């Protein structure tokens, strides 16, 4: 019998871990993997699977692909009625019996941890004995009746699951690869499915190192750990990170979900040594409202979190993504505004604004009436409004999320945003709220924009507001553009001092030994023609570097012509270094 395991990933760059686990565990049975994306045509997906003429097809099912997966399954069953269709994954684990009753074309559902259940099911189908009643973790049909067997006990020794990374060849090159060193979570957040499984189980360090070594050798783009709390065991986490650091992989990064208040001084000093861009931390804040945190069972010491994340930020070597969730209990619009501003003060590399999803099996879904959650009961089950926040307010937060993604999260407007907020708004949220009004009034939310256009629109907004310091803002946004873009073609609407003389003399300027000694000592013995494309020189009407150091407050000594040299770097966080070279000109 021919067996295929497949899934619809959310993006082409992603890879599916679950189907590789299932294949590895069922090693005695030949299994072919096929991966698609939700953006591909359904007819194409069905056609490619059908051409393989499978006898058994297993689909890994999630909130992002459930509806598309069901369409694929129905079409395949219509044209290949004898093919056995199996669904598994979190999206079918909590109401699988209802799903089987509703969808005639699905034959089996594997619920819970699937490796052992799936292997036993395959062997039973292949042996054609049709005796499914002793397969724990399985839901199946017997005539018109749907039968749900007892749940399966979790695998105690995770090392007994064969590695899914043994024969990867070029499967993962330049892709995001999902990886787990543990299963379970020590916390009990009621919006999360991990809270339904008590305790944390770990793979052995030898196993983890062996698998990571394979991925490093395969030169994948990113290894994204799916451990719910990677640093729940400090020594274990540090051993893994130390192993990665010792391998010194090139052009790779490793993403971890960490709990900030568990990061002590020893671990902070340890990660301070990591190569820039090697590690990326995702830290769930969710809210800073104490009533909200208590209602969702979230264990957070925000004072400690703020202190730790600010210290990591100052290391300038680790990307930090801090998460907030709108729509939680007791979080109204003004409460969310405070949560946002609390996180914004930390200045992480990214602020990820999410919207509460009432996942099947989660405790918050069970309490939907208590908090007045209104949502569409189909994937992704996103909350539209609650007793505390109305739909029109959620829409505003959606708009702010979009602007934060465009203007804050990539870091291309860092100084411009800081100057505007410091000098014209009480809080960061007030700025984004005001900018959203302008953005939607101009219908900019209805069309796409390239990066240069974003600079132009921000200048247009500043003109629209009639702020008196437009000339200074022009110089700041010009600085941000040159700092973050190796492109001297300034966007329209941003004025610049005549630069022909400096550009004409750039070669001679870079021969200045005093300048080289003071600013570019590492280029001292390199021919000028090799340096010239790594730097840019620009004149400014204000001393913007001194302005930034003065917390974006202008004084008279900063009102002077200044010449700045931009030295571009091939690094993730520190894209550029700038020098005031006015005295050398």
Largest sheet: 7 strands, mixed
Q: What's the CATH H-level homologous superfamily of the largest domain?
A: tm_1862 like domain
Helical stretch count?
Answer: 23
Strand order of the largest sheet: 2-1-3-4-5-6-7
The count of DSSP E runs of length 2 or more, i.e. the number of strands, is: 20
Radius of gyration: 27 Å
Which parts are unreliable, with pLDDT below 50 for 5 consecutive residues or more? none
**Main CATH class of the largest domain:** Alpha Beta
**What is the residue-averaged pLDDT?**
94
- Beginning-to-end CA distance, first to last residue: 77 Å
CATH topology of the largest domain: pyruvate-formate lyase- activating enzyme
Shape: globular
Question: What report would you give on this structure?
Answer:
This protein is of the alpha/beta class. The protein has three domains: 3-148, Rossmann fold, CATH 3.40.50.280; 169-409, Alpha-Beta Horseshoe (pyruvate-formate lyase- activating enzyme); 485-584, no CATH class. 38% of the residues lie in helices and 17% in strands. Helix 2 (42-51) crosses helix 3 (66-79) and helix 6 (205-217) runs parallel beside helix 7 (234-247).
Secondary-structure topology with pairs:
Layout (H helix, E strand, L loop, with lengths): L2 E7 L8 H8 L5 E7 L4 H10 L4 E5 L5 H14 L4 E5 L7 H7 L5 E3 L4 H13 L10 E5 L2 E4 L27 E4 L2 E3 L15 E3 L2 H13 L4 E4 L8 H14 L5 E6 L6 H7 L7 E8 L3 H6 L6 H14 L3 E8 L6 H12 L5 E6 L7 H4 L1 H4 L2 E2 L7 E3 L5 H18 L5 H11 L3 H14 L9 H15 L4 H15 L15 H5 L1 H4 L3 H7 L8 H4 L3 E6 L3 H6 L12 E7 L7 E5 L5
Parallel strand pairs: 1-2, 1-3, 3-4, 4-5, 8-11, 11-12, 12-13, 13-14, 14-15
Antiparallel strand pairs: 5-6, 6-7, 9-10, 16-17, 18-19, 19-20
């Amino acid at each position: 019998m021919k067996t295929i395991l497949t899934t619809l990933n959310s993006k082409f760059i992603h890879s599916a871990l679950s189907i590789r686990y299932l294949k590895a565990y069922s090693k005695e049975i030949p299994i072919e993997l096929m991966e698609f994306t939700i953006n591909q045509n359904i007819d194409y997906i069905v056609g490619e699977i059908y051409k393989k003429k499978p006898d058994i097809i297993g689909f890994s099912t999630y909130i992002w692909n459930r509806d598309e997966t069901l369409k694929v399954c129905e079409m395949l069953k219509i044209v290949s009625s004898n093919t056995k269709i199996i669904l598994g994954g979190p999206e079918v684990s909590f109401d699988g019996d209802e799903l089987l009753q509703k969808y005639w074309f699905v034959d089996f559902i594997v619920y819970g941890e699937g490796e052992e259940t799936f292997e036993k099911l395959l062997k039973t189908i292949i042996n054609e004995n049709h005796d499914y009643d002793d397969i724990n973790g399985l839901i199946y049909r017997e005539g018109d009746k749907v039968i749900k067997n007892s749940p399966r006990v979790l695998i105690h020794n995770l090392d007994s699951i064969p590695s899914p990374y043994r024969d990867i060849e070029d499967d993962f090159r330049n892709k995001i690869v999902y990886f787990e060193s543990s299963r379970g979570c020590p916390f009990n957040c009621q919006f999360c499915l991990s809270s339904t499984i008590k305790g944390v189980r770990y793979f052995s360090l030898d196993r983890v190192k062996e698998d990571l070594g394979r991925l490093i050798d395969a030169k994948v783009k990113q290894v994204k750990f799916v451990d719910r709390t990677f640093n729940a065991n400090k020594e274990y986490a540090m051993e893994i990170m130390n192993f990665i650091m010792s391998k010194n992989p090139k052009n790779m990064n490793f993403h971890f979900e960490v709990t900030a208040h568990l990061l002590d001084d020893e671990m902070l000093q340890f990660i301070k040594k990591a190569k820039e861009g090697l590690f990326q931390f995702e830290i769930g804040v969710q809210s800073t409202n104490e009533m909200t945190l208590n209602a969702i069972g979230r264990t957070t010491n925000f004072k400690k979190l703020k202190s730790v994340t600010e210290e990591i930020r100052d290391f300038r070597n680790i990307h930090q993504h801090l998460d907030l969730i709108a729509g939680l209990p007791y979080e109204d619009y003004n409460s969310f505004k405070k949560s946002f501003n609390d996180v914004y003060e930390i200045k992480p590399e990214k602020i990820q604004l999410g919207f509460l999803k009432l996942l099947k099996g989660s405790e918050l879904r069970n309490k939907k009436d208590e908090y007045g959650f209104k949502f569409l009961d189909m994937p992704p089950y996103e909350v539209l409004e609650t007793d505390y926040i109305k739909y029109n307010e959620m829409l505003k937060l959606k708009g702010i999320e979009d602007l934060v993604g465009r203007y804050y999260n990539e870091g291309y407007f860092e100084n411009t945003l800081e100057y505007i907020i410091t000098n014209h708004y009480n809080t960061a949220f007030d700025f984004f709220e005001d900018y959203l009004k302008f953005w939607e009034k101009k219908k900019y939310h209805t069309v796409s924009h390239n990066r240069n256009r974003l600079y132009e629109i921000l200048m247009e907004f500043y003109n629209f507001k009639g702020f008196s310091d437009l000339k200074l803002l022009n110089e700041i946004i010009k600085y941000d553009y040159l700092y973050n873009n190796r492109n001297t073609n300034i966007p329209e609407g941003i004025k610049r001092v005549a630069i022909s003389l400096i550009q004409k003399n750039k070669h001679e300027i870079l021969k200045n030994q005093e300048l080289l000694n003071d600013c570019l000592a590492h280029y001292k013995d390199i021919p000028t023609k090799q340096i010239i494309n790594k730097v840019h020189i620009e004149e400014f009407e204000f001393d913007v570097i001194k302005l930034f150091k003065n917390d974006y407050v202008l004084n008279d000594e900063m009102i002077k012509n200044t010449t700045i040299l931009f030295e571009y770097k091939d690094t993730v966080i520190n894209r550029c270094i700038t020098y005031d070279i006015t005295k050398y000109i």
